Amino acid sequence: MCAATAAAAARQDAAEHPAAHRVGSALFYAGSSFLITVVNKTVLTTFRFPSYVCLGIGQMIATLVVLYAAKVSRTVQFPDVDRSVLFKVLPLPLLYVGNHITGLASTKKLSLPMFTVLRKFTILMTMTLEAYVLRRTFSKPLVYSVGTIVLGATIAASADLAFDAQAYAFILLNDAFTAAAGVCTKKKLGVEGLGKYGVLFYNALLIVVPTVLASVFTGDLREAVAFEGWAQATFVLCFLLSCFMGFVLMYSIVLCSYYNSALTTTVVGAIKNVAVAYIGIFVGGDYLFSWTNFLGLSICMLGGLVYSYLTFNNKPPESNAGTSELKLHATQDSKKSAPV
Length: 340
Description:
Layout: H1 3-11, H2 13-16, H3 19-46, H4 52-72, H5 83-89, H6 92-109, H7 112-118, H8 121-133, E1 138-139, H9 140-158, H10 165-188, H11 195-218, H12 220-225, H13 233-259, H14 262-282, H15 291-313, E2 325-326
Antiparallel strand pairs: 1-2
Domain Sugar phosphate transporter: 32-308
Region (Disordered): 318-340
Main location: membrane
């Protein structure tokens, strides 16, 4: 598919599905993302569970069990295990495992408000990636709102009283993996023979085995098994809830990407972050207040709301857009480019 065709397909996403499906899938993703952030924070920080990798393994296993049971009961359909099917999914599993592990690591090491702020960079990364890969264009107000988001995130991060270089590295890697996985997921949903459930199942299947092996070699699995909290019913309940919510989140991401675009899915995450950030100031006990940090947080959230409003209310830009459009795309020599 050539770049022009890919861009045209991306612009048609909004018209392909009913508005109720688009909004419903977006709200479903927002709710799932909010709940799993709180539950993961409880398991990793409140109960001090030592291994975010093993928590991720539990979420992958839950995804496999639920989808396989649904396939056996003929509630859903997706292809049987086949080498060609596995190759169709690649490289999505690699992006997802990076997204999963770095996301859990940053959740453990950062306060909820700072986690929320730094996740805003995903929007900029997704916009840039779609501009380069899909040759999409964005209106000036949309680009300015992204600039506001990045400005607020920078201000808030500069005054982070609990600065942790390793945690910042994890969250920025998580942003990059999220952006790449979002665009890749959108592409894989169009691959013949996979479908939403096939993408979910085989993605988890290819991820879980190497992740388990990695946890064995690093000692994470041993630490998780020896964790004293297994004797507490409350912890076990939260752990199982996190595992189930891992499946729900992965499904909601695929569903939202199917009915919308990768960029819209990222925007929905920004809407969810408004609630997470301000609740995290009062819940969790690991937020160190400062006025500079709070100001940056508020600017970031304001930009996120404006961005979300513009995204869900503006029509996709036409190819003959006027001066109000700011083309954000990769510079490429048209004489040297050729359709793929």
